[in-house]
Structures are given as C-alpha cells and as structure tokens.
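Whether sequence alone determines local backbone shape is best considered at the level of individual chains. For completeness, the protein is quoted in full, as a sequence line and a line of structure tokens:
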Amino acid sequence: MTESPSSATAPDIDASTRVDTWLQAFDEALVARDTERAAALFAPESYWRDLIAFTWNLKTVEHPDGVRHMLDDVLDRVAPTNWRTSEPPTEADGVTEAWIEFDTSVGRGKGHLRLTDEGAWTLLTTLRELTGHEESFGERRPRGARHGAIENRRSWREERDAEDAELGVTRQPHTVVIGGGQGGIALGARLRQLGVPALVLDRYDRPGDQWRGRYRSLCLHDPVWYDHLPYLPFPDNWPVFAPKDKIADWLEMYTRVMEVPYWSKTTVTSAEWDEASGTWTVQAERDGEPITLHPRELVFATGMSGKPNVPPVPGMETFAGDQHHSSQHPGPEAYAGKRAVVIGSNNSAHDICAALWEHGVDVTMVQRSSTHVVKSDSLMEIGLGDLYSERALQNGVTTEKADLIFASLPYRIMHTFQIPLYERMAERDADFYARLERAGFEHDWGDDGSGLFLKYLRRGSGYYIDVGASELVANGDIKLAHGQVASMTPDGVVLADGTELPADLVVHATGYGSMNGWVADLIDQETADRLGKVWGLGSETTKDPGPWEGEQRNMWKPTQVPHLWFHGGNLHQSRHYSLYLALQLKARYEGIDTPVYGLQEVHHLT
C-alpha cells in the first residue's frame, strides 16, 4: 500500500555509478571493520531496516549513530561481503534506488537501497537463505522417484504415512505451532521445505474450518495479488476477492500438497518450559486423546489478534435474545424479520450489518468512536495498484518484489508515503464521504491522515474497507446510533445518553485483546507479562502507546521469553514474514549461533 519512486522509472547510467560507488565504499568500510566510516555513508536522517541478516531480529536503526551502534555489535560475526546490484538502479525525484544482494558468514541476503545527495536514506537487508541449508527448489528439487530395483522399497505414500505416525509420537518435533489458520499453515510449509521437524496444531476438524465456520457472506477484502501463500500462488483465474469457503478449500488443499505436518482436532491445554531439558512440555488433546509434546520452540500462530473482547455490560445476563461476539456470528439466516443491534463500526460490524439487512433484519449499528472507511475500488487502484495488481505484474513487480518494496519503507516514515494516497482517495470519493457525514457516520483518516494500513499496523482496528455496507449506512438502511453501551435489559441495549435500542439479537463486534492473552491462558500470567503487549509500533497514536518500537511488537522475532514466538497477521504478512521466522527456527535447529541485537523491551503488558 505505497508508491515506490522506482516503480515507473528507467535504468540510469549515472544512477548505476552512484550505487556502485556507494556499495564499494560501504563494502570497504565493513571489511576494514571501520564502523565510523560505514556510518558516515548514511544521510543525517536515515534508516536501516534489517530482517535477521545482521541482527537475528526484525530491527530498524535510525541515523548514522544507530548504524554505528548496530555495526559495532554485530559486524565481526556477520562479516558481510560481496555487495552488488541485482538489476540496474533507477532514479526519480532526487532519489536513486537499487536492488542489492550480499553474503554473510551464514547466508545470502537481498536488499534495497535508496540514496540521496546526503548518502543512504533507507537500507533494507534481508536474509533469504542459510548457506548449506538451502531449500530444495529449482536445480535442487528432489527427484521424487528412485529408479532401479530396490528390495523392500517404500512408496511416497508409505514414507509419508510413516512420518505422520512417528512425528509427535516416537519422534519429537523441534517446533510446535499453535494455530492452523493461514499463518500456521504458511509457517508450517516454510519449515517443511527447510527440513525442520515441526507440527501445526489446530482445534478444528479440517484445515480451513476457521473460514468455513464464519458467516455465509464473508469474502476477503484484500485482492488476490496481495494474498498469495508461499510457494504456491493462486491460479490466474482466482477471483479478485475470494469467498471464505473458497479460501477454506484452498488452505486444506495447500496443507496436503505442501505436506505440512498438521494435526487437526487438537486442542492445546497447557504449556510449560522445562529449563533442565531445554524443551517445552505441551499438553494437548488430539481427537479426544491426551498427548504430550516436547518441542524446543513454541510458536503462537493465532492470528494478529488475541481472545475476543466482550466488555462487561451491566444486565448482559438478563438479555432474553441471542448475543455473541462477532467471531462467533453464525450468519443472518436465523434472524429474518427480527431486530439486531451490532455494537461496533469496523470491518466485522459492517459486514454483519450488511448481511443481516440483506435477510430482512431491522439492524442498528452502534458507533462508539470514529472509524476510517475507504472504498475498495479506490484502495485497489490508488493504495495497492503499483504493488499488488495486474498492472504491477505487467510492470515487472512480482509478489516477492512488491513485498520487499513495502518492507523497504521504515515504519518511522511510512506515513509520509501513505498520506498523499489517502488525500487522493478523499478527493476522488468526496461525494461518498459527504453522504456518510450527512447520515451521521463519524469518519476519520487516522491520527495523522495516513489511512488504513497505518491504523492496521498501529492498532489493528478502527477501519472498514467498503464493499457495500457504507451505502446502506449512507441511505439509512442500516440505522446508526452513537455512544457507549451503558447497560442491557431483557429487551435490548441502553446507551450512555439513555437511548434504548430494542433487540432480538446483539452482536458484540468489539474487537480482540492482545495475543499474549493466549499465553496467559496456556502458560501463565507471569509469562504473558514477561512478553508484554503484542502488535503495534509505539507511535503514540490512538491505541498505540509509546515509546517508539520501530517494528511490530513481538511479531516474527525473538521475545523476552526465549523459545517463544508469535506469527500471524493478514495473508500478506503471513506469507512474507513466515520466511524470516522459519529461518530463525532453522538456524536454531541446526545449532547456528544466533545472537540477537536489540531485543525488544517490554513497556506495556496488554
């Protein structure tokens, strides 16, 4: 969701010279271990974002002082060399951009560089593979067949069945992933390809049931180009916005085709770290039978959200109708002709309200605070079009390149790239927003005007991608009420100003808590507090308290609790960041030294 200055520019000879000169000077300084000289190659305002290549962390350092401090700590063991461009650099608006590659003591990396007259403005470095532990693709792909006459040969199916019978029973996994949605499946596929013995555990009957069980009308709000899984992209005829059951079937198929070791019907009941053995003791029930696992690494892949949040309301227990959190909403079919109150005004609230209205329900949305709304078509064309679209593909921007372009923008300055995009959307859809305002809908563009994706990164809430419900709000088909819920009665909901909303159904579309709430449930509160809050950047905007973190809190990287990790987010993040988490786990499995630079401190518990 950003524009890249290089997206439409041509290769430039002078740009190539500038980049080559900078890379040579940088390489010479690093080889000489002259961190002062290396840091001086960065502009006074500059940002180096590293995804595990130098820091074994997801870490952004700022300005020459930050660069020098990081290099002083890591340079001897990383020993980076062979800096080079992988395609001709480009230049636009005074910024030279280049795709780069490099080697380290343990692996091979890719990156992206932006240069100005003052030096490096942004640098992205990412570890892509570990030397000697490369994935088996391309020329390294497995043969599959063993030609010749082999006594007592086992077929592929027999080999897989034997592995399934052993892993977690007679042979312990190195890594256990709790949660088998798209995040757990993507990580499971990465670990499988890297040869890390891992199990993905999920409580549902089949992969994809997390989607099958949601309300009937649910579709992805993000377009197909943004949502591919690792290794196996959606086919070219896949719909732009995939229905939930189609996604569910794809996840089930993907799990089988990618040979992800996946235990369905498995509920984790507790986990405890054993210092003596250096393993977790994970207690679970698999299809009703108790089982104990002893992995070295434990990953919570329960999404980007924690447990459903239903604020206690006086009188909830007296309500005579149906009430549930949005995550448990069964769909609108049973409520035709009835009255519904949906508490909340973000994505789920809008989707549920629209589906209820379509089935003849008298529905009222309770807006407790302002919400950012962006029309889907505008988001696709202006916000995503340069990176994730057919247009982007025609311009040579593959999904992998788009992911790296987006990753190359440090979070500290990302809003400056986003604000102009949302200003264009506001101008394009001015009539739409005027109608929403006249209907009484309270709208915002984020604390600094940066729109949807920064809201998502900072707080994970407060927005709706409009796929139709906003029209129902604007014309009054979905009624609006404002304020906090003061109480509930047997017949409905009472707001703080005394407004009474009669209801046969109340849906609490009230969001989720921090993911460390799952840790409190399965391990203990002390461990959850050692971890601290999960998600957010520390931007000091609404619901994202400071201090500044520079990266997503506790996601895809080492935490203050050794051997405990978090993985999740949307499909884009599950795809992109699963690589770096999988490489960190692979390095630990192989006994590679992984000293962490800049381990995140804990400032907030929830």
Q: What stands out?
A: The domain at 15-130 is CATH 3.10.450.50 (Nuclear Transport Factor 2; Chain: A,). The longest helix spans residues 13-31. The chain is about 30% helix and 20% strand.
